[in-house]
# Entry
Amino acid sequence: MKITFAITLAFTIITASADWPQFRGPNGNGISADALPTKLDKENLKWAADMPGRGLSGVIVVGDRVLLTCSSGPRQHRLHVVCLDAKDGSVRWHRQFWATGRTMCHSKTSVAGPTPCSDGKYIYANYSSNDLVCLDIDGNLQWLRGLTLDYTNVSNSLGMAASLVVSGNVLVVPVENDSESYTIGIDKHTGRNLWKLNRPKAANWTTPTLLPGGFKGRDLVALQSSKGVAAVDLKTGVSVWNFGNGASTTSSSAVYDGTLYVPSNGITALQPRSDGKAPDQIWQSGRLQPSTASPIVLGKHVFTVNRAGVLTAGSRETGEREWQLRLKGPFSSTPVAAGKHLYCVNEVGLLQAVDTTAKEGEITGKLDLDDQILATPAIANGAIYLRSNTKVYKVAK
Amino acid sequence: MKHRLLGLLAVFSLGVVCWSAPNVSDSIKTIRAVGSEGQGNAAAAQALKKLAQADAAAIPAILNAMNGANPLAANWLRAAVDTIAAREKKLPLKGLNQFLANKANNPRARRLAFELIQGTAPDAAEKLIPTMLNDPSVELRRDAVQRVIVTAMELQNNKKDKLAAGEYRKALDAARDIDQIKTITTRLRQLKQEVDLPRHFGFLMHWHVIGPFDNTERAGFNTAFPPETEVKLDAVYKGKAGDVKWIPFVTADEYGKVDINKAYPGLIKEVTAYAYTTYDAAAARDVELRLGCKNAYKVWVNGKLVFGRDEYHRGTRIDHYRLNASFKKGRNTILIKLCQNEQMQNWTKEWEFQIRVCDPTGTAILASNRPRTPAKGTDNN
# Structure
């Protein structure tokens, strides 16, 4: 009984919302309150929908709308936003734009790399070409920007993939690269700049992390880069604190219960301070090594998965490695969680459900979609949505 | 200038074309005013709301308004067309066909018109494809080229090599997309046909290079070494490790790659070199310089900086950068600065670029002083 209660308590930091409005869900931590099948079978595959282009951006879900971006054309210069009906995968609307920035990217990635986000009313989508569009949930264009038109050296020849986050009136747009490198706070209603920060001149694919009420009640956004983490005031872009020990440029920080788990020298757990000074380092563990995938914190553990497919569970409190489980890799996508299970999909479309409360973790189900999947899944309305290079899949009970 | 005129004509003609939607011309004018950093977004959003309510008859006028519109405005206008077309059951085929037929119209807008026709009258669209082999819209042309490639392949499969070669040649002349060009080239060579790819693309093959100058800690990118202030091919300057002078350099790479490592053998890092060539233009004109390069670079035309970018070893492809430049009649100079950084991994050895001169469709514009495509390039000189 005590154990059950403890487990229940450990999984209470989850959202009640059924939407999945951004990369790694409502709180940017990859956790959903929904119940998903844990055994996984072909019967769980409810539908698969063909897309008009390629992509590895994640799916977002707003109500009964499943939204994603794609790119197409010989030079991937045609940019798509597609809205599917969650019920059957049919297309509710589809909008296209022409890229105004460079579309060069590595063949493994795509111009549709960054995951869009939504505040429930509007959808914000960006692309590796640094085109940024805002549509309402019915597909009506509200505004657009061409950030490479505005700032001609904003681009990354490997491809941009950092995702957007939105909070309050601010859309945070990371366009960090080797040359003209910024993160921009944009008025979500008009598309105009609220602030524009010069950022380290280095390619960066990490997604900002929101820290609500992070300093004197003000919301902060943590910007990760090769230099470390800079927390800035969401409304003004003014720097509040800085962690300067370096960090990954691919795997993004996870926030859980006010603690920031940064892919830095393995994983470094940071406790932001209320006085705005540099955060306290709780622990640092080189034995937790995220690769492309970002860490996820669930229950008592922080999890990392490396490219080879080794899932490592570390103590959330101490960082000590507790167990490892070999999954079938390789992985580019970040695991997501529902209940006590992690859902990990590898690059060839094998979805694996892992019971994180089993002594050393246990794979409870597998579903082979036999497709190239690099995107982080979304969980909403009792379903997990997986996006391959060319399709979207719905898996549910 | 031509596009601006078309844009004005488009706006003036709206009153006739879109008599059923009096707000259309005002809305278009507002949308066409969007600018950098989100300027005009709020007004454009209001205008789009009105414009998107227009009936399908307004679509050709909205397409017309893309002529001369900036790329952001074109996307706004596209959103209006998409919204109307998704809602309206019957599209104005006659107007769309007229718009498509006018090759002076915006190429992307014409492609959009074609796709709208395709969605409504697929059979009619199919018949149009073969007529687009030399269309100024690269996307329209692509479909027509693919048709010819398929025909040629069928002929080749049936051992009709001579006819197949003729079709492949026709396809190559029209092809502008690299994947199609590579397919055609492979097939033509199977048929023992010669293909002069540098000429097809318009790659610049003959250069003078000088270096190495210093680029320690990547500082050379913003250091103006002597070639940036004067190009004297007989001059001698102090370089990173001694005196340096201009040397002739010819590439025979069929994709025009100028490999600076061949001029300065050995793995040398944290260095800068310059490449210089001349281009005789038959007439003054605007051109596109299309550059492929994974090193930090700067490009000057006639002494004027066109563009520069300080990114290293992230990847490249043909036509990676499309740079707009103006050539004067007669001799023009092209100077490229190419920086190599400190990284020592295998994949950071490349110190090279490729550049071609073409029009917006990617059609090569050859210099009047263009030498024959070299059979052999400079190696280790």
Summary: The CA atoms of residues 251 and 350 of chain B lie 15 Å apart.
